[in-house]
Amino acid sequence: MADRGRDAYHPAMPASPGPKADPPGHPLGVPRTPPADPPGHPRGVPAAGRRESKAARTARAAEVRQRLAARYPDVTTALTHRSAWELLVATILSAQSTDEVVNRVTVELFHRYPTVADLAAADREELEQAIHATGFFRNKAKSVQGAASYLLEHHGGEVPGTMDELVELPGVGRKTANVVLGSFFARNEGVVVDTHVGRLSRRLGLTRNNDPVKVERDLMVLVPVDEWTIFSHRLIWFGREVCTAKDPRCDRCELADLCPSAFKVGRWVKAARPAKGRGQRPTRRAISGSSSE
Hints:
The protein is mostly helical. The protein has helices at 54-71, 84-93, 99-112, 116-120, 124-130, 137-154, 163-166, 174-183, 195-203, 212-222, 228-241, 267-272, 284-291. Among the domains are: 51-76 and 193-267, Helix-hairpin-Helix base-excision DNA repair enzymes (C-terminal) (Endonuclease Iii, domain 2), CATH 1.10.1670.10; 84-183, Endonuclease III, domain 1 (Orthogonal Bundle). It is 46% helix and 0% strand. The radius of gyration is 26 Å and the shape is globular.
């Protein structure tokens, strides 16, 4: 991970008077004990103000992977599909939607339009109505039909099995391509970074980035190639069941002692805030108002 402070401007500091002498009785040449982490700080996680080394982050990521693997030994995408084409369409529809909604929609969608050619030739307004529940239905209908037409023209109606070919399809980026490649073709060419993976990666301190491509790049360094796909699925399921966006359950999280965000988000932030009207300093306006009486 790039060092954010590398190119930052640092003002000149006064010359140091030199290292402080060891306290009386301290063994010669033995480094003094570093300050302990604050009480309650997660084990193995650097405290505020301390930069975690690459080796430490890699070791912590390995422990995260191990615990997630114990919880989800064999897990895959929750999107229902019978072919690469159905998974491609379902993944396009899943943007800003839930897998449950998408699975309900695709049952009827693939019954009405069973082939790539059928979807390419579908009436646009009817297609929009069919996928309306997934949200952003106009853009999604355009992407699905664009992808279908492109496949018919360039790949004989078959979904290609490489990243370079998949991202040429309308409406298909790296996330969608990684889902299809990893979950259908069993090819680890990248890490799926959806909202769950991005959120958990930042909370766990595995990345500082918000851009999905940069998050993927950071995770690819920390996770072995053969785990890229399943690690994504494990994070996704954990994000749904435990580390949710609005109400993460840090109290029953098996990663809490490895997480720099543990008990600092969601309900835990609200619990730490003082109640309104209690323990607050009076405002300057209030003070001036009381003195005039």
